[in-house]
Amino acid sequence: MRLRGGAAAAAVLVFAVAGCKADTTAGSGGPEEAGGGGGSGAALTAAKSLTVKGRAPKTGYEREKFGTAWADTDSNDCDTRDDILKRDLEDVKFTGGHCKVSYGVLESDPYSGKEVTYRRGRSQVDIDHMVALSDAWQKGAKYWDAGKRIALANDPLNLLAVDASTNRSKGDGDTATWLPPNKAYRCTYVAAQVAVKKKYALWVTAAEKSAMEKVLSGCPGQKLPVGGNPTAAPPRFHAG
Length: 240
Fold this sequence. Notes:
Elements: H1 5-11, H2 42-49, H3 80-88, E1 90-94, E2 101-106, E3 116-119, E4 125-129, H4 133-137, H5 146-153, E5 159-163, H6 164-168, H7 186-199, H8 206-217
Antiparallel strand pairs: 1-2, 2-3, 4-5
């Protein structure tokens, strides 16, 4: 059974950036919930294996290149945003049926550590792409076909419900330029970025790889999140 984000995020609060211990819980409400974590120390090992290249120009990037926002790529008749809200929030309430989330509580926001209430239409909760789509575009995604870009944009492995105000400070930053203010969550956050970049064969900059290894060296037993959706969306989905 999947833990929702509030309980799961609370579980990772035992970590610190420096000297954090291996993650032996289910991790965040996001990546590791999708299929269990990799072996002890797998995150640091995976970070060391990532390909290093320079950041490509942002030229040509548009959100539409990753398809319509929150496409139902897993064909469960609920859009991706509501899927993640259902997964990560507590005390969830719906508007008609069991898809459209109208209310919920992020009991311990992974990025800030505070409690955040979600209300549809005036939300203080964002669904963050942990590897930002613009960052992905500059590190390989601009060369992909539409199906792979759509898959990345809707992959639960790369998505997390978080405090909106904290998330807005991230922009399209990578590990070298932005980390969650909640230091206890940094090991899990960086492991998630590593997992996504490895799964989709995205490269990293030298500075980014160094930052990843620095964080994960403080928690050398950190597991690597696994699971999520296939790396190609169903052919009925198209991108601009």
